[in-house]
Amino acid sequence: MDFSTISWLGVVVATISTFVLGAIWYGPIFGKAWMNEMGFTEEQLKEGNMLKIYGTTFVLEFIMATLLAYTLSGHGEPLEMSVAIYHAIIIGLGFIGLSKGVNYLFNRHSFKVWFIDSFYFVISFTIMAIILTVL
């Protein structure tokens, strides 16, 4: 794999954007609904190792942004914004969302939690694609 054609500034900004989106998405927007659907209380969530959870999340999101940048890079060819957004939606919904749907059916999770988790990735990948196209 040749990563020389991607913008590392774009990758860092895209990583930060998806991290911030997650804080908003699973905070004020869908935080309480997600907790209820997953059967968590605020006290249970506070018991987790936050450094490990947030640190690992950031690393995984950095890897996702890097791979998205590589995928969208066209291996040196500039990519139109609409094409980048199209690919982001296909990845977010078509791969991640549908894969989560299969797992959530077997795990007996609700449609509501599937929607919350899957559309976070659709929006996240779309925002990252926009950033990566601009930067």
Notes on the structure:
The protein is 81% helix and 0% strand. With 135 residues, the chain is mostly helical. It has one domain (8-134). The chain is globular, with a radius of gyration of 16 Å.
Features:
about 140 residues; mainly alpha; globular
Succession of helices and strands: HHHHHH
The largest β sheet comes out as: none
Instruction: Report mean pLDDT, rounded to a whole number.
Output: 94
Helical segment count: 6
State the share of residues found in helices, binned by percent: over 70%
What does the radius of gyration come to? 16 Å
- Total of domains: 1
Task: Give the end-to-end Cα distance, rounded to a whole number of Å.
Answer: 21 Å
Question: Oligomeric form of this entry?
Answer: single chain
Sequence stretches where pLDDT stays below 50 over 5 or more residues: none
Total count of strands: 0
| Structural class by sheet pairing and helices | mainly alpha
How big a fraction of the residues is strand?
Answer: under 5%
What overall form do the CA principal axes indicate?
A: globular
